[in-house]
C-alpha cells in the first residue's frame, strides 16, 4: 500500500507531495518528506548510470527510446520501500510503500509499476490545465483527490 | 567485540596494527610527531629469501582491548606494536610515564610483540643517560654512541623478543629483555621494572631518528609476524586446534572435535588464519590462494562466519592488488632519492647486523641455504601463478626453507620510507586465477555480509565489512553498489553507545558524500546530530550537533547565503525550514546566541515565501526573543572551525515596495547657470538610435543632482507584513562612492498598510554617489538591505547613482513693503490702484557658509514682458554691487511696483457712442470741410465748464478701435476692472566652487490692480493760440471714494466716486521735428501710406502722452497715483489739430489780420478784401499746391449750405494753383468778396496738394492721401473765419 506519493520537478524541488495519514503516528508529513528527499540521491544516480550505459551503447538507439521509465526500488528502510519513476521530461515520481502494513509488505513490482504509470497519467492530466505553469507546485484539488484514491486503491 | 571501527578500510587487512599513545604531560609537538609516524606506513623488508616484502602499518591512537579478541578471527585486528610518546619533567613523572607504558604493555599483552618509548625530558642537551640498574650509559649526542646503543639493544632485546614471541604467545613482559636505559640526566633514572626500548630527547629536539626507530619497530614486528606465519604454515593440519571467534566459545562446548566435519572446520579456519598472516607479511599473491582454499573448505562444512571472513579476506587481497591507490591515500612527500632497492645499499645502511642470539635461535639451519636456492622469484606473485594448485604443504615447505635461509640471509633491511608503489613485484598477480575482478569483489563482499548477518554477534564485523565494501565500491566509482552497502549498515541492529551510533552516521554521511549522495549524507548527518542531543544520550553535545546540522546544509540544497537561497529557490522548503529550526535550537543550546539569531534571521529571510502567515509571525516573535540575547548584525560570523556564516539581511520585514531618491526641493535644486542650447530642431523625437544599450547602461542613474552638504532625501514605501506593530529603528541609507552622512530614522509600521518613509542624508564630498540600499534594525536584527538582493516582485536597479555637485549657498528671503506689510514667506500679496506706485524691499540673507557670488533676478508672470518691466522695476546695478554676499550677510533689493494700466477705456466704445461714430468716419481722411467744428468747440467749452458729460451731445467722439493696432492689447488691461497679476520673482544665485550651477528661489508676488480712473472719451480742440490745443478727456472715477484729479500744474478737479467728468488739458501742439523714428525705414512704398499715417499718429500720440500729466489722489485713503493717456488714438482730423500745420496761415480781411476766435462783421454789399498768405514751414519745397477759398453758411444744426450764389460775389480767383512753394517761402493771394445778403457766413480756406510726398520719407510732415491720385492732402485754416453780415 502506498503511503506517500511525490512529484518532483526537474530541479529536484517538490511539486507535489501527498500522503495518507492512515499510517502510524511517526509517519507524519515531515518524515515522508525526508524519505522522498533522501530517495532522490539514488534516483539521480540511477538516471546518471542509465544514461551513461545508454551512451556507451549508443549504437542501440532503439533501446534509448524504449528506456523504461520505471526505475524500480530505489531503497528501502525498516518500514518503507521507495520506488522511483522518471518521465521523459525528468519529472520524478516517487511512491513510498509501507512494509509494516500487511498489504504493503508483499507488494509486487508490477503493481507498483502500474501505480506509477497511472500516477504519470494523472500528472499529465494535471499539467494539461492551461492555467498551470510548468514548474509550479501542483495545487489541483482534483489531482490530489485522484492521487489519494490511487494510493488507497492500490492495495 | 563491541567497538566498531568505522574507519577501517579494506587494505587494513594487510596492515600491522600499531598503537601510538601519548603519555604524561601534553607534548606540544605531539601532533607533528604523530604525523611523522603516520608517514612511515610502509617499509620494505628483504626476507630470508632475499625477496623484498612490502609491509604496511596502520597506526591507531586508541584501540579497545576487546577488539584484540577477534585477533584469531582476523589477524589484522591484533595490536602488534606500541609506541609511546611521553613527556616528563622530573623523576616522579618519569616514573609515572614508565609505569603507564608498562601497564599498556600488560593491557595488550596477548598480542603485543614489541614496543618503543620516546621520552621527552626537560632541557635540550641531554648528555648522560644513566641506567640505574646496570650503570650503563650511552651518550646520545654521538651518532656512534647511539649506534652502539642501538646495536646493544638489538643484541639484547630484539632477538630475545623474537625468541619469546616465536616460542610462546605469552611472551610479555619479556623477562629476558634488557632495555637500554639512556637517561637524559644523571638525576633521572628509570624504574627497574621498566623494560622497554626507550629513547630520550629534549623537549625541543628535532628527533631526527624518529623514523628510523619506528622503522626498527616495524621491522621487528614483521619478523614476528613472519615467524608466526611460518609456524602456522608448518603445523600439521590434522592436529591444529580450532580457532574461535570470541562469541563462539560456548557453541563448541561438548562437541565432538574429532569428527570429520570439525577437522575440516579446523583446517579451514587455520588456513584462513594463515592467509591472514600471509597477507600481513606482504605475500599478497599467496594469500589469495590461501583464502580461496580456505573458503572452499569452510564452505563445505557450512561454517558461515569463517567463510564470510575468508571471502572478505579474499576481497581484501584482491582489492589491494587491483587498487593499489587505496594504500597510498596519504600523499607521500619523501624524496624519491631516498628509495633504495638495491640490497647492497640497504645493507650498508642497515643498523642491524646478524646477531648471535638470532643465530642461536636457528642453530641448525644450514648455512648454505641462501637466496639462490630459493630465488625471490618463487615467492613473488609470479611464482604463485605456477603454484596455482599449491597446497598448504608446499606452501609451508616453501616457507620453511625460507625461514631456514633467513639466518644467513638475515638482513633486516631497514628500507624505511618507501615512497614508491611497490608495484613491480605485484603486477604478475593480476593474472592470478584467484584474483577477483571488481564486480567479483562486490559480489563476494555481498555474500560475506549476508553470511555475517546470520550471526547476531558478528554485527560489528558485518558493519565494518559493509563500510569496507562501500569504500571499495567508491573506489570502483559504483555509487549504487556503495549506497547498497551503506544502506545495509542501517539494518544492522547493534547495541551501541550513542557515541558509536553517531560515529556510524557520521561515517555513513562521509561515504554518501563521497559517492555524491548529498541528500543521504545530509540525512545521516542530521540523524547523527539528533543523536548527539537525544534523550538517551547521557551527555548531550550541542556543539557537535550544531556543526553536523550545519554541514548537512549542502545536502538540503541550502546555502548559508540568503541571497543565493532566495535566488535559486530549489530544494525542499519543508525540510529546509525544519532543519533551520533545528539549527537555531542547536545554536541556542550551545550558547551561541549570535549564531541562533543569525540562523533565525536566515530562516525568516530565505524561507519567507514558503512560510505561512502564522509561521511568519511565530518565527518573527522567536527571532525577537533570540535577538534580545544577542543582536544580529550584518557582519559575517566566523565559527571556531573557520567557517564563515554570511550575514542574513531581512528584506522581507519590512517589505519595501518602492525606493527612489528624490530630487532636492525646488528652492534648493541646482540649475545650470547657462542652460544648454537646444540640440536640434526637434524637441521630441521618438527615434532614439541605440536607445536600447543606453537605457541598460544608465539604469538607476538619476538625472537630477544632489548638492554637497545639503540634506537629500530618498523616498521608500514600506509595508509591515507581520500582524503586529513593527518598530524599525535606525534606518539609514547604504551608499558607496562619496562620503555620505545618513541620518537615522525610526518608524513604527502598522500591520499591512504601506507607509511612505523618507530617509535623509548629507553627501559630504563631490562626485558620484551610489545608493545601494538601506539598513534597518528591526526585530532586534540589523540588516543591510541592498537593492540588488531585494526579493523578486520588485525589480530595483542594483544601485541608484547620483552626481553630487559642490556646495551651493542657500538663502532666505524676506520681503517688506513700504506700507509696512511684511512677509517672510515666498508669497507676497499686494494691491495697487492703477497708476499707484509703491516699493518693495527684498532682503536676502545668506544662510549657508558659502558666499553668494552670483545673483540674477528675473520675472515670470502672466503679463507680457513689456508690461512686466513697467510694473516691476529694479536696479540691476544695485544688485550686482552688493555681491558677494558673505555668509550670514544680508543684501537688500529695492523693487518698485507700479500699477501700470491703460487708462483709456476702449471697451466703452462699443456701448454708447455708436450714434456718434456715424459722423466720425465721414471726417477721416475726407477732404470735405466740416462746418460743425466751430460750434462744437464752443459747446464743448460749455460742457467742460459745467463739469458734466453731456452724452447726447455730438461734441465729443471717441476714437475707434479700428486704428489702434499698436496700442496695448485690450484683454490685458481693461482699466475698469480689477486685475490679478501673479508674478514669480526668480532669484538665481550661486557661489563657491560649483560655479556651474546655481540655485533658484522664487518669490511669489500676487499683485492686485484696482481700477482708479479711466478715460472714456477724448477729443482735441484747437486752443485760442495756434500753437496750442485742448485735449478734452472724459475721466471716470472708478473708485468709490472721492478723487482729486490734477490735470495741469494748477488745476484740479474733484470727482465723486463712480462719477465722471470732462477736463480740458491744454497742450502744445505737436511740432514737426519731433522725430520718433519708429518703423518707417524699412517699409516699402506700397504700404508706406498707412505706415506713414500710423507713424505720424504714433508720434502725435506719444507727444500727447508725454505732455499730459494726470495725477489723482484718493482724498479719503490718501493714496495718490498717476494716469496716462498712453495709447490714445487720433483720427486724421484730430491729428491735424494736434499737429502744427506745415503751412503758416496769415489771413487778413481788409489788410487786417484775423485772430482766432475773432468774429468779423461787415455790412451787406461791403467789399472785403481777403488776403491769404501761406508760408512753408517745411524744410523742402511743396509742389502743385492748390489754394482755395470757399464760403458757406453753417446752420448750426449740422447742415451747411455751400450754395451761396445769390448771396456772395467774389472778385478774383477763389482758387489758385501754386506750382512750387519753396521752403520758408511765402505765397500771397488776395481776392475780393462782397456779401449780398446779411447773414452768418464762414470762409473755408484750404490748401490742397496733389503731389505725393513720398520721395523723402525722412520728412513725415504730411500724410498723403492718394484719393484717386488727385488730392493727397488738405490743410485748412482753422478755425474758419466767420463773418457776420448785417444790413
Please tell me about this protein's structure.
Chain A is of the alpha+beta class and 155 residues long. Chain A has helices spanning 29-56, 61-65, 102-105, 109-127, 141-153, and strands at 2-8, 14-19, 70-76, 80-86, 92-98. Helix content of chain A is 45%, strand content 22%. The longest helix of chain A has 28 residues, at 29-56. Chain A is globular. Chain B has 1287 residues and is α+β, with helices and mostly antiparallel strands. In chain B, the strands form ten sheets. In chain B, strands 38, 40, 41, 43, 45, 46 and 47 form a seven-stranded mixed β-sheet that branches. A six-stranded mixed β-sheet of chain B has the order 2-3-1-4-5-6. In chain B, strands 11, 13, 15, 17, 18 and 19 form a six-stranded mixed β-sheet that branches. Chain B is rod-shaped, with a radius of gyration of 64 Å. The chains are: A alpha+beta (155), B alpha+beta (1287). Chains A and B meet through helix 1 of A and helix 16, helix 18 and helix 21 of B. Chain B: Belongs to the NIBP family.
Topology:
The complex is a heterodimer of chains A (155) and B (1287).
Chain A: E1 2-8, E2 14-19, H1 29-56, H2 61-65, E3 70-76, E4 80-86, E5 92-98, H3 102-105, H4 109-127, H5 141-153
Helix pairs in contact in A: 4-5
Chain B: E1 15-24, H1 30-39, E2 42-46, E3 52-60, H2 65-68, E4 79-87, H3 91-107, E5 114-121, H4 143-167, E6 197-202, H5 210-234, H6 260-280, H7 284-300, H8 304-322, H9 343-349, H10 356-361, H11 376-379, H12 381-386, H13 392-409, H14 438-452, H15 459-475, H16 479-491, H17 498-514, H18 518-532, H19 542-551, H20 562-567, H21 573-589, H22 593-606, H23 613-629, E7 637-638, E8 644-645, E9 655-662, E10 670-672, H24 691-697, E11 701-707, E12 712-719, E13 726-737, E14 740-743, E15 745-749, E16 755-763, E17 767-778, E18 781-786, E19 800-805, E20 811-817, E21 822-823, E22 827-833, E23 837-846, E24 854-861, H25 865-871, E25 872-874, H26 876-881, E26 890-898, H27 914-917, H28 920-923, H29 933-946, E27 979-990, E28 997-1010, E29 1013-1022, E30 1028-1037, E31 1043-1046, E32 1052-1055, E33 1060-1068, H30 1088-1107, E34 1110-1114, E35 1119-1123, H31 1132-1138, E36 1143-1149, E37 1152-1153, E38 1159-1163, E39 1167-1176, E40 1182-1194, E41 1200-1201, E42 1208-1211, E43 1215-1221, E44 1226-1235, E45 1239-1249, E46 1273-1276, E47 1281-1286
Parallel strand pairs in B: 1-3, 1-4, 4-5, 5-6, 11-19, 22-28, 38-47
Antiparallel strand pairs in B: 2-3, 7-8, 9-12, 10-28, 12-16, 13-15, 13-17, 14-16, 17-18, 17-19, 20-21, 20-23, 23-26, 24-27, 25-26, 27-28, 29-30, 30-33, 31-32, 31-34, 34-35, 36-37, 36-39, 39-44, 40-41, 40-43, 40-45, 42-44, 45-46, 45-47
Helix pairs in contact in B: 4-5, 5-6, 5-13, 6-7, 6-8, 7-8, 8-14, 14-15, 15-16, 15-17, 17-18, 18-19, 19-21, 21-22, 22-23
Amino acid at each position: 500500500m502506498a503511503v506517500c506519493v511525490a512529484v518532483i520537478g526537474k530541479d529536484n524541488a517538490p511539486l507535489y507531495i501527498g500522503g495518507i495519514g492512515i499510517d502510524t503516528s511517526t509517519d507524519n508529513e515531515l518524515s515522508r518528506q525526508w524519505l522522498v528527499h533522501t530517495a532522490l540521491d539514488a534516483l539521480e544516480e540511477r538516471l546518471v548510470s542509465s544514461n551513461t550505459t545508454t551512451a556507451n551503447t549508443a549504437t542501440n538507439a532503439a533501446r534509448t527510446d524504449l528506456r523504461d521509465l520505471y526505475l524500480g526500488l530505489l531503497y528501502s528502510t525498516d518500514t518503507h520501500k521507495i520506488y522511483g519513476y522518471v518521465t521523459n521530461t525528468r519529472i520524478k515520481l516517487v511512491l513510498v510503500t509501507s512494509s509494516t502494513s500487511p498489504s504493503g509488505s508483499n507488494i509486487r513490482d508490477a503493481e507498483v509499476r502500474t501505480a506509477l504509470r497511472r500516477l504519470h497519467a494523472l500528472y499529465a492530466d494535471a499539467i494539461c490545465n492551461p492555467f498551470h505553469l510548468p514548474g509550479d507546485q501542483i495545487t489541483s484539488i482534483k489531482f490530489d483527490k485522484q492521487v489519494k484514491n490511487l494510493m488507497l486503491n492500490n492495495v | 567485540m563491541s567497538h566498531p571501527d568505522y574507519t577501517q578500510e579494506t587494505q587494513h587487512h594487510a596492515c600491522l596494527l600499531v598503537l601510538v599513545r601519548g603519555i604524561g604531560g601534553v607534548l606540544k609537538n605531539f601532533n607533528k610527531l604523530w604525523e611523522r609516524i603516520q608517514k612511515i606506513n610502509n617499509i620494505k623488508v628483504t626476507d630470508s629469501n632475499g625477496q623484498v616484502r612490502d609491509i604496511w602499518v596502520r597506526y591507531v591512537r586508541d584501540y579497545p582491548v576487546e577488539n584484540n579478541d577477534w585477533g584469531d578471527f582476523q589477524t589484522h585486528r591484533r595490536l602488534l606494536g606500541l609506541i609511546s610518546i611521553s613527556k616528563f619533567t622530573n623523576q616522579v613523572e618519569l616514573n609515572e610515564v614508565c609505569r603507564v607504558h608498562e601497564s599498556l604493555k600488560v593491557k595488550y599483552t596477548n598480542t603485543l610483540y614489541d614496543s618503543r618509548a620516546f621520552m621527552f625530558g626537560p632541557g635540550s642537551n641531554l648528555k648522560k643517560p644513566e641506567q640505574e640498574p646496570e650503570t650503563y650509559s650511552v651518550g646520545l649526542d654521538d651518532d656512534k654512541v647511539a649506534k652502539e646503543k642501538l646495536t646493544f639493544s638489538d643484541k639484547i632485546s630484539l632477538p630475545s623478543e623474537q625468541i619469546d614471541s616465536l616460542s610462546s604467545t605469552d611472551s610479555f613482559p619479556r623477562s629476558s629483555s634488557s632495555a637500554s636505559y639512556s637517561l637524559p640526566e644523571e638525576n633521572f633514572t628509570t624504574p627497574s621494572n621498566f623494560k622497554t626500548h626507550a629513547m630520550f630527547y629534549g623537549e625541543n629536539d628535532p628527533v631526527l631518528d624518529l623514523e628510523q626507530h619506528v622503522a626498527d619497530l616495524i621491522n621487528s614486528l614483521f619478523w614476528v609476524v613472519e615467524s608466526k606465519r611460518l609456524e602456522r604454515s608448518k603445523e600439521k593440519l590434522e592436529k591444529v586446534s580450532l580457532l574461535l571467534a570470541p562469541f563462539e566459545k560456548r557453541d563448541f562446548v561438548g562437541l565432538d572435535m574429532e569428527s570429520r566435519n570439525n577437522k575440516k572446520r579446523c583446517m579451514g579456519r587455520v588456513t584462513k588464519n594463515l592467509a591472514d598472516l600471509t597477507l600481513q607479511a606482504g605475500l599478497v599473491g599467496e594469500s589469495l590462494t590461501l583464502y580461496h582454499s580456505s573458503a572452499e573448505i569452510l564452505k563445505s562444512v557450512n561454517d558461515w562466519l569463517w567463510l564470510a571472513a575468508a571471502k572478505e579476506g579474499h576481497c581484501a587481497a584482491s582489492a589491494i592488488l587491483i587498487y593499489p591507490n587505496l594504500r597510498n591515500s596519504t600523499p607521500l612527500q619523501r624524496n624519491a632519492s631516498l628509495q633504495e632497492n638495491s640490497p647492497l645499499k640497504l645493507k650498508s645502511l642497515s643498523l642491524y647486523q646478524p646477531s648471535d642470539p638470532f643465530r642461536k635461535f636457528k642453530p641448525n639451519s644450514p648455512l648454505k641455504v641462501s637466496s639462490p636456492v630459493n630465488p625471490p622469484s618463487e615467492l613473488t606473485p609470479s611464482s604463485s601463478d605456477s603454484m596455482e594448485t599449491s597446497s598448504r604443504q608446499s606452501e609451508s615447505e616453501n616457507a620453511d626453507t625460507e625461514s631456514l635461509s633467513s639466518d644467513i640471509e638475515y638482513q633486516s633491511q631497514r628500507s624505511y620510507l618507501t615512497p614508491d608503489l611497490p608495484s613491480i613485484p605485484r603486477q604478475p598477480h593480476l593474472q592470478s586465477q584467484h584474483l577477483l575482478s571488481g564486480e567479483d569483489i562486490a559480489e563476494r563482499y555481498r555474500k560475506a555480509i549476508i553470511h555475517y548477518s546470520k550471526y547476531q554477534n558478528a554485527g560489528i564485523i558485518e558493519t565494518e565489512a559493509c563500510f569496507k565494501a562501500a569504500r571499495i565500491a567508491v573506489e570502483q566509482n559504483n555509487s549504487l553498489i556503495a549506497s547498497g552497502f551503506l544502506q545495509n549498515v542501517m539494518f544492522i541492529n547493534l547495541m551501541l553507545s550513542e557515541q558509536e551510533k553517531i560515529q556510524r552516521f557520521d561515517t555513513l554521511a562521509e561515504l554518501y558524500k563521497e559517492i555524491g549522495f548529498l541528500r543521504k549524507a545530509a540525512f545521516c548527518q542530521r540523524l547523527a546530530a539528533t543523536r548527539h542531543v537525544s534523550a538517551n544520550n547521557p551527555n548531550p553535545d550541542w556543539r557537535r550537533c550544531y556543526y553536523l546540522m550545519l554541514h548537512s546544509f549542502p545536502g538540503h540544497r541550502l546555502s548559508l547565503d540568503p541571497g543565493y537561497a532566495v535566488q535559486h529557490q530549489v530544494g525542499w522548503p519543508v525540510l529546509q525550514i525544519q532543519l533551520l529550526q533545528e539549527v537555531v535550537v542547536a545554536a541556542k543550546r550551545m550558547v551561541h546566541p549570535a549564531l541562533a539569531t543569525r540562523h533565525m534571521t536566515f530562516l525568516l529571510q530565505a524561507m519567507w515565501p514558503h512560510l505561512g502567515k502564522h509561521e511568519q509571525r511565530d518565527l518573527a516573535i522567536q527571532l525577537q526573543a533570540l535577538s534580545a540575547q544577542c543582536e544580529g548584525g550584518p557582519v559575517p560570523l566566523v565559527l571556531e572551525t573557520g567557517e564563515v556564516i554570511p550575514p542574513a539581511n531581512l528584506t522581507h520585514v519590512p517589505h519595501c515596495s518602492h525606493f527612489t531618491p528624490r530630487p532636492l526641493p525646488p528652492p534648493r535644486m541646482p540649475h545650470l547657470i547657462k542652460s544648454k542650447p537646444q540640440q536640434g530642431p526637434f524637441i521630441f523625437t521618438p527615434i532614439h538610435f541605440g536607445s536600447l544599450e543606453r537605457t541598460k547602461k544608465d539604469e538607476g542613474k538619476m538625472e537630477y543632482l544632489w548638492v554637497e552638504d545639503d540634506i537629500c532625501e530618498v523616498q521608500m514605501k514600506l509595508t509591515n507584513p507581520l500582524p503586529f506593530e513593527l518598530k524599525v529603528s535606525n534606518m539609514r541609507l547604504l551608499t558607496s562612492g562619496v562620503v555620505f552622512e545618513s541620518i537615522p530614522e525610526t518608524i513604527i509600521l502598522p500591520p499591512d498598510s504601506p507607509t511612505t518613509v523618507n530617509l535623509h542624508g548629507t553627501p559630504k564630498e563631490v562626485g558620484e554617489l551610489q545608493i545601494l540600499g538601506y539598513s534597518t534594525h528591526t526585530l532586534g536584527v540589523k540588516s543591510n538591505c541592498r537593492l540588488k538582493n531585494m526579493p523578486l516582485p520588485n525589480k530595483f536597479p542594483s544601485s541608484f547613482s547620483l552626481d553630487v555637485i559642490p556646495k551651493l549657498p542657500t538663502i532666505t528671503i524676506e520681503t517688506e513693503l513700504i506700507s509696512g506689510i511684511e512677509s517672510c514667506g515666498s508669497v507676497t500679496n499686494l494691491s495697487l490702484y492703477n497708476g499707484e506706485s509703491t516699493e518693495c524691499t527684498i532682503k536676502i540673507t545668506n544662510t549657508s557658509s558659502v558666499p553668494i557670488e552670483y545673483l540674477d533676478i528675473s520675472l515670470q508672470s502672466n503679463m507680457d514682458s513689456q508690461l512686466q518691466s513697467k510694473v516691476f522695476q529694479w536696479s540691476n546695478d544695485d544688485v550686482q554691487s552688493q555681491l558677494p554676499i558673505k555668509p550670514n550677510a544680508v543684501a537688500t533689493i529695492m523693487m518698485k511696483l507700479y500699477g501700470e494700466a491703460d487708462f483709456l477705456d476702449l471697451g466703452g466704445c462699443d456701448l454708447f457712442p455708436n450714434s456718434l461714430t456715424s459722423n466720425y468716419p465721414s471726417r477721416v481722411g475726407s477732404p470735405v470741410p466740416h462746418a460743425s467744428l466751430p460750434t462744437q468747440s464752443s459747446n464743448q467749452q460749455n460742457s467742460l465748464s459745467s463739469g458734466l458729460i453731456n452724452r447726447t451731445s455730438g461734441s465729443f467722439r471717441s476714437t475707434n478701435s479700428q486704428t489702434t493696432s499698436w496700442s496695448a492689447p485690450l484683454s490685458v488691461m481693461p482699466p475698469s476692472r480689477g486685475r490679478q497679476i501673479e508674478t514669480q520673482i526668480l532669484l538665481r544665485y550661486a557661489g563657491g566652487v560649483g560655479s556651474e550651477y546655481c540655485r533658484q528661489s522664487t518669490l511669489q508676488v500676487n499683485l492686485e490692480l484696482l481700477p482708479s480712473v479711466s478715460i472714456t472719451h477724448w477729443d482735441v480742440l484747437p486752443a485760442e493760440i495756434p500753437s496750442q490745443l485742448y485735449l478734452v478727456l472724459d475721466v471716470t472715477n472708478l473708485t468709490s471714494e472721492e478723487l482729486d484729479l490734477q490735470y495741469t500744474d494748477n488745476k484740479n478737479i474733484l470727482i465723486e466716486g463712480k462719477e465722471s467728468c470732462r477736463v480740458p488739458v491744454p497742450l502744445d501742439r505737436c511740432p514737426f521735428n519731433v522725430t520718433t523714428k519708429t518703423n518707417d525705414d524699412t517699409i516699402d512704398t506700397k504700404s508706406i501710406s498707412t505706415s506713414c499715417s500710423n507713424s505720424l499718429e504714433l508720434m502725435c500720440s506719444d507727444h500727447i502722452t508725454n505732455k499730459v500729466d494726470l495725477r489723482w489722489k484718493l482724498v479719503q485713503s490718501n493714496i495718490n497715483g498717476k494716469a496716462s493717456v498712453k495709447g490714445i488714438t487720433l483720427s486724421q482730423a484730430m491729428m491735424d489739430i494736434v499737429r502744427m500745420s506745415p503751412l503758416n496761415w496769415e489771413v487778413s480781411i481788409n489788410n487786417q489780420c484775423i485772430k482766432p476766435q475773432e468774429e468779423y462783421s461787415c455790412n451787406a454789399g461791403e467789399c472785403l478784401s481777403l488776403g491769404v498768405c501761406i508760408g512753408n514751414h517745411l524744410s523742402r519745397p511743396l509742389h502743385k499746391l492748390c489754394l482755395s477759398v470757399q464760403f458757406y453758411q453753417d446752420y448750426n444744426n449740422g447742415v451747411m449750405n455751400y450754395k451761396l450764389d445769390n448771396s456772395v460775389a467774389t472778385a478774383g480767383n477763389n482758387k489758385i494753383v501754386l506750382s512750387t512753394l519753396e521752403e520758408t517761402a511765402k505765397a500771397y493771394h488776395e481776392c475780393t468778396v462782397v456779401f449780398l445778403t446779411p447773414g452768418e457766413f464762414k470762409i473755408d480756406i484750404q490748401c490742397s496738394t496733389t503731389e505725393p510726398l513720398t520721395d523723402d520719407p525722412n520728412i513725415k510732415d504730411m500724410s498723403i492721401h492718394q484719393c484717386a491720385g488727385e488730392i493727397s492732402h488738405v490743410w485748412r485754416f482753422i478755425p474758419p473765419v466767420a463773418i457776420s453780415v448785417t444790413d
